[in-house]
Specification:
- The complex is a heterodimer of chains A (65) and B (154).
- Chain A is of the alpha+beta class and 65 residues long.
- Chain A is built from 2 helices and 3 strands.
- In chain A, strands 2-3 form a two-stranded antiparallel ribbon.
- In chain A, strand 2 and strand 3 form a beta hairpin.
- The longest helix of chain A is centred in the last third of the chain and has 12 residues.
- The radius of gyration of chain A is 13 Å and the shape is globular.
- Chain B has a single domain, classed as Glutaredoxin (3-Layer(aba) Sandwich), CATH 3.40.30.10.
- Helices cover 33% and strands 20% of the residues of chain B.
- Chain B is built from 4 helices and 5 strands, in the order H-E-H-E-E-E-H-H-E.
- A 4-stranded mixed beta sheet of chain B has the order 2-1-3-4, with helices on one face.
- Classes of the chains: A alpha+beta (65), B alpha+beta (154).
- Strand 2 of chain A pairs antiparallel with strand 5 of chain B.
Chain lengths: 65, 154
């Protein structure tokens, strides 16, 4: 995705080497994908589901009614 | 002991000869000479030596196309980069600005090494390998998206 869009940055983090960072992002199982430092999902998944999960987490929050 | 044995290095060389096209830039952020001892305050770097050896093996497999820059963060304190970390970008492309948007933090061992090899090939060939529908969706993005994928070296 980072190759296809200039707006995407992708970083693979070796969880065991950075325990504080892993703890901060709630890593209990891998692979865990953290989107914009906030939302996250766990597991390897097909491309379409991965994209959907990323887009869901980047969607702006609905303003309160 | 070497990270990659001679057989693997030869395989990598053959694979890169067949698959690489344009030059790529690998940048390794490291702290040389810190050894495997972890000191309070994060001064140590247990895997910097291995990461450097791995990066040098990648560059040696295709010296014409894989350009390696090793950055000593202890001499460049303004960088504040975790070590070791590796970034990848097209050597002459716009993506190289900012040090690359594709990276690995920690030693990319095990399956993670395969992702580095695959990414080098994709960047070199300018092929992301995604479905058209994915590319269309990514074109709709208006804000930056930062993905961090936590993995372990299995």
């Amino acid at each position: 995705m980072a190759l296809a869009s200039p707006l995407v940055t992708a970083l693979s983090v070796e969880a065991n080497e950075f325990p504080e960072l892993s703890q901060r992002h709630g890593v209990q199982s891998v692979p865990r994908t953290v989107v914009n430092g906030a939302g996250a999902f766990v597991g390897a998944m097909p491309e379409a589901r991965f994209l959907a999960a990323v887009l869901e987490l980047t969607r702006p929050a609905e303003p309160p009614a | 002991m070497a990270i990659l044995n001679e057989q693997l290095k030869e395989q990598l060389k053959r694979r890169f000869t067949e698959r690489l096209h344009d030059p790529v830039q690998l940048t390794l952020y490291t702290r040389p000479g810190s050894g495997r001892l972890i000191l309070p305050g994060g001064l140590g770097c247990a895997t910097c030596g291995d990461a450097r050896e791995l990066a040098e093996d990648l560059a040696a497999a295709a010296p014409e196309q894989v350009q390696l820059e090793v950055v000593d963060v202890s001499a460049r304190t303004e960088l504040e980069r975790p070590v070791p970390s590796l970034t990848l970008a097209a050597a002459n492309g716009e993506a190289n600005e900012g040090g690359g948007r594709l990276g690995w933090q920690g030693l990319p061992a095990g399956y993670e090494f395969a992702t580095v090899v695959d990414a080098i090939e994709r960047v070199s060939r300018g092929e992301h390998g995604l479905a058209d529908a994915t590319v269309d969706a990514l074109c709709e993005l208006t804000e930056p998206v930062e993905l961090m994928v936590f993995a372990t070296p299995t």
